[in-house]
Design goal:
Radius of gyration of chain C: 28 Å
Oligomer: heterotrimer
Strand order of the largest sheet of chain C: 1-2
Structural class of chain B: alpha/beta
Helix content of chain B: 40-55%
CATH superfamily of chain C: MetI-like
Structural class of chain C: mainly alpha
Distance between the termini of chain C: 48 Å
Distance between the termini of chain B: 46 Å
Number of helices of chain B: 19
CATH class of the largest domain in chain B: Alpha Beta
Shape of chain B: globular
Number of domains of chain C: 1
Largest interface: A-C, 108 and 106 residues
CATH architecture of the largest domain in chain B: 3-Layer(aba) Sandwich
Number of strands of chain B: 13
CATH topology of chain C: MetI-like fold
CATH superfamily of the largest domain in chain B: Periplasmic binding protein-like II
Chain lengths: ~280, ~425, ~325
């Protein structure tokens, strides 16, 4: 931050915009919370206030937790998301580092083909993908999605990481090499730590995409106990044309708040990594 | 039918092999105690939860007791999620054996010939309703065994209709428009789905067309009949209905939207399955008391309904066709299927005549229209054959969009012409 | 270097290699090209197997007539000709471009603003960041379902608010009116994606060396000038990448429109992704559906090319 902020500047420059952001981002969640705590009679009542609860009821939460495999779905989703993210960050880093920082024959062409690979929609891929998964006898296992999600995530992680890698000056690496470090050490001990915000950004995005994904999960996760949240919820809380709205909203909150808490944990390190990084010249 | 023990042995060998492969490579081992053989049965999640529960709690254990074979019941979300799953099963030959095949016109070639089962069930059941045969039979062979129809009828608020002076539900489309106009003025408009859903739009629009004497494609499956005076009459009617009787929002409604609108007291009438009535009775008893159902109004050429047929099929690539057939035959035997039908409150109206007067229908008289639907019900492709092209017409919403565009102000001539262009692209 | 020049002269000079040296693995690994290619191999193999093969198969599909469960027949460009003459296809193309363009601009501007606001010092930053990310975190399927209700004409928050403040007697039909339906899907997409732009650009903002900004202030630059001439240029790589990625992601967006409107009313919100799906799954035409999906690639490629050309100009 630069400059001294007076009290009025702070209100105008910080609190008002921040408040607006909060309202914009979170009003649906307030509504979801209110809905999840309303019994059906109040939920469907046209005269009821959308954001106020007259007779709070936990029936939807209880129903959700007791009558469905919701907790299992959360567990599966977390597992899949973590593993896919780690795989994607690793592979993404391995793609991005050479392309961003090194000069070698074929670099340009490779970067281009990675970019093109990303321009592939899921709707084009899912039939052959299903075929591939079945050939490997991975149908109805979590491994199926843990292997297919990185196809969606790796190009992005690589791309995002390339952006961060490029911002670190070459001189730092060269200095390390002159000092006798191997390329490997230069990479792992000098450059990568400086890019921690990049990893965290890419990791957050990858994790979110992974836990959000629907089509592959629909195709490859068939048994209820194996399913992730998106597929489990739509499969069992949407029956025919009837949506179990109360339970759906309860699921939405229960499914996203733990993740938000995890994120807030990482954000702490994110900030620490940033203050360390910004000391460079 | 073979000797149970030897079939069981064979199945055991076949499936432990597959199970072994998955235990090794899977993150979560398949029931490692998978000694009994397995048949995987895929179905869309039923609106009536009791129906799925009955299958899980009564039928699966019974079958296991009788044959030692475990049935793996896979439920997929309704509203279209089953379709990619089914298509990918057929394409990648995934290990699913029996399924509710939903859009069998897409992949009849991937289904097993089940004529023997279907004929037997038909005979035992007093005959099939003829309309559904067009769906299940390809080249003289049954590729699926019909199960039940999800009845799409008019659902309405009897109290508001009474207050507007309509003590019985409108019998003709003219009366229907009249009622809607009056009710909209009283603040209780109709909510006729006209958006990109799958059932609640076709279920009144197609019967409207047919009852006016219009058709989409001829039964030869080639000649396009949509461009006709009768169609123009239907289009003009819908335009008027939308403007004078309907809620604005219904132009964009997918299938759950009319349920939501009805249950939140925003509309007085819509076309839907019994899900609204069942929801109302269960969750909003006061509303449930004043909700009723009725058959579609009739037009100059009669009264029609649109069938939403559910059928069961066996995939050709199933590991053990004999076992799968045994299971399906067992399932459709009255000893099993009667209880199953009833557990769902006849939500799926059986396609065999034997159940036309089943006592379950008498338990809730308001469900009776769903049974009557079978008498005048036609497949959405009618009169054209129920083949892949008819499916494409539905999935591209050719007819639905024709009506929707007219409702937003386009001229009747233009919307029909555009629809015909769309049909020509499909039928050539 | 020693102090005595005589001794220096006597010592053999450090020299560049004249004679061939024995192969030392560690040195070989240190060569830029080798190091790079070794690093690249595992991810490349993975992508080739899991992305390359399905992609090639998908491309192949678009040149054949391939009804589900039936064998393929080669038809050359017939699928593409079919699409060329299909008004729904062109509407989907146009919808997709409009949808992507509007949502991306909104997300970029909003995200930039959010990043600038969040780049200040205040308590509970961590919690704030996490909470503001919620629209992005919650599974799309569920938040879209919630939006269905929020956009409900009678029960939804928007219309309730409008009616509460007496701005309208009856709220508009957010999903029934063709224009408003497009506005609604753009809005929901923006709502969902803006936080991600914000957080990523924030990360970029925080890697800008404080000294640069301080020296600009000392030189007399005002807030806007600092932003325009120091901050913005340094942010460009991050902005470019996150925007490009978002364009791709938004262009391919399927779930949101599928759940909210199914492409209606009357194809007003039909995107190429939803159309491809309807053709493949509903119509059972895997070949034609793949052609629609494949058609997305050059359209998207052109959009990205235009974007990168514009950025290169700076």
């Amino acid at each position: 931050m630069v400059g001294e902020l007076t009290w009025s500047r702070r209100i105008a420059g910080l609190w008002i915009p921040l408040g607006a952001l909060f309202v914009f981002a979170l009003f649906p969640f307030v509504w979801m919370a209110a809905t999840s705590l309303k019994a059906n009679a109040e939920l469907y009542d046209p005269k009821a206030n959308p954001l106020w609860i007259r007779h709070p009821s936990l029936e939807h939460y209880i129903g959700l937790l007791r009558e469905s495999n919701f907790l299992l779905w959360i567990g599966n989703t977390m597992l899949v998301a973590v593993v896919s993210t780690l795989i994607s960050l690793l592979l993404g880093l391995m793609l991005a580092y050479p392309l961003a920082r090194m000069r070698f024959p074929g670099a340009g062409l490779l970067a281009l083909s990675v970019a093109v690979a990303y321009l592939v929609p899921q709707t084009l891929l899912f039939v052959p993908m299903a075929d591939l998964i079945n050939r490997m006898s991975l149908g109805d296992t979590l491994s199926a999605v843990m292997l297919t999600y990185p196809t969606l995530l790796v190009p992005f992680c690589a791309w995002l990481l390339m952006g961060y890698f490029k911002t670190v000056p070459r001189e730092l690496e060269e200095a390390a090499l002159i000092d006798g470090a191997s390329r490997w050490r230069a990479m792992t001990q000098v450059i990568l730590p400086l890019c921690t915000p990049g990893f965290l950004s890419a990791g957050i995005f990858a994790f979110t995409l992974a836990q959000n994904e629907f089509l592959y999960a629909l195709l490859f996760l068939n048994t209820s106990t194996i399913r992730t949240v998106p597929v489990g919820i739509t499969g069992e809380l949407i029956r025919g044309d009837a949506f179990y709205w109360g339970q759906l909203m309860a699921a939405a909150l229960l499914g996203s708040l733990p993740v938000a808490l995890i994120y807030s944990f990482f954000v702490k390190y994110y900030v620490a990594g940033l203050t360390a990084g910004s000391v460079k010249g | 039918m073979g000797h149970p023990t030897s079939r069981r042995e064979f199945l055991k060998l076949a499936t432990t092999g597959a199970a072994g492969a998955t235990v090794g490579s899977g993150w979560r081992p398949r029931k490692a105690s998978a000694k009994p053989a397995q048949i995987t049965f895929l179905r869309e999640s039923s609106y009536v939860k009791e129906f799925d529960d009955y299958f899980k709690n009564v039928l699966i254990p019974r079958y296991q007791q009788e044959t030692g074979i475990k049935v793996n019941y896979e439920i997929v979300a309704a509203g279209g999620s089953a379709v990619p799953r089914l298509v990918s099963i057929v394409e990648s030959k995934a290990p699913v054996d029996v399924a509710w095949v939903q859009l069998e016109w897409l992949y009849r070639d991937g289904l097993l010939d089940v004529s023997d089962i279907a004929e037997e069930v038909g005979k035992k059941g007093g005959g099939w309703y003829p309309a559904v045969k067009d769906l299940s039979i390809q080249d003289g062979k049954w590729k699926s065994v019909p199960f039940g129809n999800i009845g799409q009828v008019m659902v309405y608020r009897r109290d508001w209709f009474d207050a507007a002076g309509f003590t019985s539900f409108p019998d003709t489309w003219e009366e229907f428009l009249e009622a809607g106009t009056k009710l909209k003025k009283a603040g209780h408009p109709f909510g006729m789905s006209m958006g990109h859903g799958f059932a609640d739009n076709n279920s009144w629009q197609l019967p409207l067309l047919w009852s006016m004497g219009a058709q989409v494609v001829d039964k030869d499956g080639k000649t396009i009949h949509l461009d006709s005076n009768e169609t123009a009459k239907a289009v003009d009617y819908v335009r008027k209905l939308y403007k004078d009787a309907c809620l604005d929002d219904c132009l964009g409604w997918t299938d759950p939207a009319n349920n939501k609108a009805f249950l939140t007291s925003q509309i007085s009438c819509t076309n839907n399955a019994t899900s609204i009535l069942i929801s109302a009775k269960r969750d909003l008893p006061e509303m449930g008391k004043v909700t009723d159902q009725a058959l579609n109004p009739k037009g100059p050429k009669g009264r029609f309904h649109s069938l939403v047929a559910t059928t069961h099929g066996i995939f050709k690539h199933t590991a053990d066709p004999e076992a799968a057939k045994h299971f399906l035959r067992w399932l459709m035997d009255p000893k099993q299927v009667t209880g199953w039908y009833r557990s769902g409150f006849m939500y799926y109206a059986p396609f065999v005549h034997a159940y036309d007067h089943d006592p379950e229908w008498d338990k809730e008289p308001r469900f009776k229209p769903d049974q009557k639907v079978l008498e005048t019900g036609k497949l959405p492709s009618w009169p054209a054959p129920a083949d892949r092209r008819a499916g494409e017409v539905l999935s591209k919403w050719v007819v639905v969009d024709m009506f929707a565009k007219a409702a937003t102000g386009k001229s009747t001539k233009d919307v029909i012409a555009e629809a015909v262009t769309g049909l020509k692209q499909i039928y050539g | 270097m020693s102090v005595n020049p005589v001794l220096d002269a006597a010592r053999p000079a450090p020299q560049a290699v004249a004679a061939p040296r024995p192969f030392r693995p560690r040195e070989w690994l240190e060569r830029e090209a080798v190091f790079s290619w070794l690093m690249l191999t595992p991810p490349m193999l993975f992508l080739l197997a899991f992305l390359g093969y399905p992609f090639c198969y998908g491309v192949y599909l678009s040149f054949v007539n391939r009804p589900v469960a039936q064998p393929a027949t080669f038809v050359g460009l017939a699928n593409f000709v079919n699409l060329w003459n299909d008004p729904i296809f062109w509407q989907a193309v146009w919808n997709t471009i409009r949808f992507t363009g509007a949502a991306t601009v909104l997300k970029l501007v909003g995200g930039l603003g959010m990043a600038l606001v969040m780049n200040q010092n205040f308590r509970m930053k961590g919690l704030t960041r996490a909470l503001l990310l919620l629209p992005f975190i919650v599974p799309t399927v569920l938040s879209t379902v919630a939006w269905q209700w929020i956009l409900d004409p009678g029960m939804g928050l928007f219309n309730r608010l409008l009616m509460f403040f007496n701005l309208v007697t009856q709220g508009p039909s957010w999903l029934g009116n063709p224009t408003l339906a497009m506005v609604s899907v753009i809005l929901v997409n923006t709502w969902r994606g803006l936080p991600f732009f914000g957080i990523t650009i924030l990360a970029g903002l925080q890697t800008i060396p404080v000294e640069l900004l301080e020296s600009a202030t000392i030189d007399g630059a005002g807030t806007w000038q600092r932003f325009r001439h120091v901050t913005l240029p340094l942010l460009m790589p991050v902005i470019f990448i996150v925007t490009t990625f978002s364009i791709i992601f938004t262009f391919f967006d399927f779930q949101l429109v599928y759940v909210l409107t199914g492409g209606g009313p009357a194809n007003a919100t039909h995107l190429m992704a939803t159309y491809a799906y309807a053709i493949s799954m509903g119509g059972g035409q895997l070949g034609l559906g793949s052609a629609v999906a494949l058609a997305m690639v050059p359209v998207l490629g052109l959009v990205l090319l235009a974007m990168s050309w514009y950025v290169r100009k700076d």
